């Protein structure tokens, strides 16, 4: 069989093929003008949306400052609660040691420095506490004194030289859970006992009590150890109301 080719058709096809390949090559290397522009030139609005204004920065800084202040306040509050709890624990330990001492001494409570330095309660209680009892509150602002607590002198022999008074024996106190035995002293107080007996049977005035006892040691509260040796935190308002009641035994077991 004889094949006959039309040379004009072949040439035309060849030219079309060459033209298509050149067109395709041009398209493959074509980069639109917009693609050569930077993102900033194409969409400048992106910069405006992603950047912070001075006002926005100041607002964020103010919010952060408030959060930091709140965090510090919460941390301080938590730390103070821990100190108050430690102080209350100190009081309980003193109470336990005082009961142990009393059981060995015909139910007589520990004495003050009036009976000699060797008989002072901070000394005589040590053997009943494993020698690790603490007499200083963690919140005590005083850096010099060794003790934060003091005894109610109405629970010592012959307070204020009253020879007919002696409530230093637990057996003589009718309601020991109502009378303070130890309290937290104000930072300037240096003695080991309070002179509540100086009012000669009258109720201790609230302002005089506040000068001796640090009633605001833990916020608006303070820790107290009672004659039955239970420890309790009381608000100043509660203590003040009891002091204003002439029949209350808070400081005087004779009432």
**Biggest sheet details:** 5 strands, mixed
Helix content, binned percent: 40-55%
In what range is the share of β-strand residues?
5-15%
Radius of gyration: 43 Å
Total number of distinct structural domains: 1
Average pLDDT, all residues: 82
- Total helices: the number is 7
* Helix-strand pattern: HHHHHEEEHEEH
Low-confidence stretches: 1-7
Distance between the termini: 145 Å
Number of strands: 5
Structural class: alpha+beta
Shape label: elongated
Give, in spatial order, the strands making up the sheet with the most strands: 3-1-2-4-5
In short:
The chain is of the alpha+beta class and about 260 residues long. The protein contains 7 helices and 5 strands; from the N terminus they run H-H-H-H-H-E-E-E-H-E-E-H.
Description:
- This protein is of the alpha+beta class and 255 residues long.
- It has one domain.
- Helices cover 40% and strands 9% of the residues.
- The chain contains seven helices and five strands, in the order H-H-H-H-H-E-E-E-H-E-E-H.
- It has helices spanning 7-28, 39-42, 45-50, 54-104, 121-124, 206-212, 236-243, and strands spanning 149-152, 180-184, 193-194, 221-226, 231-235.
- A five-stranded mixed beta sheet has the order 3-1-2-4-5.
- The longest helix has 51 residues, at 54-104.
- It is elongated.
- 27% of the residues are buried.
- The model is unreliable at 1-7 (pLDDT under 50).
């Amino acid at each position: 069989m004889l094949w006959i080719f039309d040379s004009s058709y072949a040439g035309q096809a060849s030219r079309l093929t060459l033209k298509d390949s050149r067109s395709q090559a041009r398209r493959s290397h074509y980069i639109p003008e917009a693609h050569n522009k930077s993102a900033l030139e194409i969409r400048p609005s992106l910069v405006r949306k992603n950047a912070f204004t001075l006002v926005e920065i100041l607002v964020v800084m103010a919010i952060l400052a408030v959060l930091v202040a709140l965090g510090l306040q919460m941390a301080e509050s938590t730390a103070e609660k821990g100190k108050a709890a430690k102080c209350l624990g100190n009081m309980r330990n003193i109470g336990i040691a005082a009961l142990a001492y009393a059981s060995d001494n015909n139910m007589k409570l520990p004495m003050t420095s009036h009976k000699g330095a060797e008989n002072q309660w901070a000394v005589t209680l040590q053997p009943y506490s494993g020698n690790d009892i603490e007499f200083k509150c963690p919140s005590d602002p005083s850096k010099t004194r060794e003790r934060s607590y003091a005894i109610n002198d109405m629970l010592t022999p012959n307070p204020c030289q009253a020879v007919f008074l002696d409530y230093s024996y637990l057996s003589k106190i009718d309601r020991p859970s109502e009378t303070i035995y130890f309290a937290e002293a104000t930072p300037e107080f240096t003695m080991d006992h309070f002179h509540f007996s100086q009012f000669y049977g009258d109720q201790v005035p609230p302002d005089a009590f506040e000068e001796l006892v640090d009633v605001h040691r833990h916020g608006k509260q303070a820790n107290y150890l009672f004659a039955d040796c239970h420890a309790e935190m009381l608000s100043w308002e509660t203590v003040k109301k009891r002091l204003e009641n002439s029949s209350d035994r808070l400081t005087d077991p004779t009432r």
